Amino acid sequence: MTTLAALDGVTRRFGDILALDDVDLAVGEGELVGLLGPNGAGKTTLLSLLQGLRRPHAGTVRLFGGDPRDAASRQRLGCTPQETALPATLRVGEVIDFVGGHFADRMPTAELAEEFGLTELLRRQTGALSGGQRRRLSVALAFVGRPRLVLLDEPTTGLDVDGRRALWDAIRRQHAAGASIIVTSHYLEEIEALAERVVVIADGRVVADDSLHAVLARVGDQWVRLSTPEPARLAALAGVVATAADETGVSLAVHDSDAFVRELVASGIPFTGLQVRGATLEEAFLALTERSAA
Ligand SMILES: Nc1ncnc2c1ncn2[C@@H]1O[C@H](COP(=O)(O)OP(=O)(O)OP(=O)(O)O)[C@@H](O)[C@H]1O
């Protein structure tokens, strides 16, 4: 598999903040990689290094084998940032033509508009678009130059359920047609819908890089909830992957809830309101990032 983008021992600081801490990551041709992590984990910083917008303080970043800060390396890169400023008085079709004009081999405006559900909007000024329509246009623009690699930073933020699904379908079709994609998201549903490989980032470090299935298996797929006056003693019990406490009780991610409950009873830790159920993706992901923080 040809490597399209690679970070090798990359560290990036902002003053005292260590935004990326010794990150290794390689993305190959044909991959659709989901980058998952809480606010401030370092996802956007990672994408900005791949776009050549920032330089690493240590380590190397390669894009199509070159330095991403050389414009030539970025010819086959498409991006949608978290927020896009569109010139309000230009029409949708004009914006697509303007961005497309920068690429030697571009997708025709009508074809791109059709793919991303913008056909009816081509003559509308971008200032008159709804938030969801603007978002669709921003994502579409990442694909206009027939990129080999596309970076999508939270592509469906602000979209309703239908809009999100329609955009996922378009992204999947572009992937099937040959584009490799790195997508960041806060929505596990989005990562699940799009990505086969999941890279979890927490506090600037890669804490998991595997198939979605394998990541879930690692974090424990059962979830126990209870109330106790002695929450600190719970973490020492066997099979506890992670704990999270709030004012209503303690939640624990565990691998084997039967074994956990047997040990809980044997430990003599007082508890009430015991509940056991399968973990949602959201909980599994939180457990993983909290464990890394611990
Ligand atoms: N220009 C900057 N100046 C100072 N600190 C920054 C700058 N950019 C990012 N940071 C800090 O670096 C860390 C990583 O930020 P980054 O935006 O990469 O996270 P993220 O995972 O993309 O978060 P989010 O999901 O909220 O977009 C954060 O602590 C952030 O505050």
What does the model show?
The protein is of the alpha/beta class. It has 2 domains: 3-216, 3-Layer(aba) Sandwich (Rossmann fold); 220-278, Alpha-Beta Plaits, CATH 3.30.70. Helix content is 31%, strand content 30%. Strands 5-6-7-3-8-9 form a 6-stranded mixed beta sheet, sandwiched between helices. Helix 5 links the parallel strand 6 and strand 7. The longest helix has 16 residues, at 161-176. Adenosine-5'-triphosphate binds next to strand 2 and helix 1.
- Contiguous runs where pLDDT drops below 50 for at least 5 residues: none
- Based on CA atoms alone, the radius of gyration comes out at 22 Å
Ends: how far apart? 36 Å
Number of strands: 13
Largest sheet: 6 strands, mixed
Shape: elongated
State the helix count: 9
* Attached small molecules: adenosine-5'-triphosphate
Approximately how much helix is present in the residues? 25-40%
List the strand order in the largest sheet: 5-6-7-3-8-9
Going by CATH, the architecture of the largest domain would be 3-Layer(aba) Sandwich
| H/E series | EEEHEEHHHEHEHEEHEEEHEH
Strand content: 25-35%
Number of domains: 2
Characteristic terms for this protein:
binds adenosine-5'-triphosphate; 2 domains; 294 residues; alpha/beta; 31% helix; 4-stranded antiparallel sheet; Rossmann fold
Brief digest:
By secondary structure, the chain is an alpha/beta fold.
Task: List strands and helices in order, with pairings.
Layout: E1 3-14, E2 17-28, E3 32-36, H1 43-50, E4 58-63, E5 77-80, H2 92-100, H3 109-115, H4 131-143, E6 149-153, H5 161-176, E7 180-185, H6 188-194, E8 197-202, E9 205-211, H7 212-219, E10 222-227, E11 240-246, E12 249-254, H8 257-267, E13 272-278, H9 281-293
Parallel strand pairs: 3-7, 3-8, 5-6, 6-7
Antiparallel strand pairs: 1-2, 1-4, 8-9, 10-12, 10-13, 11-12
The structure holds adenosine-5'-triphosphate.
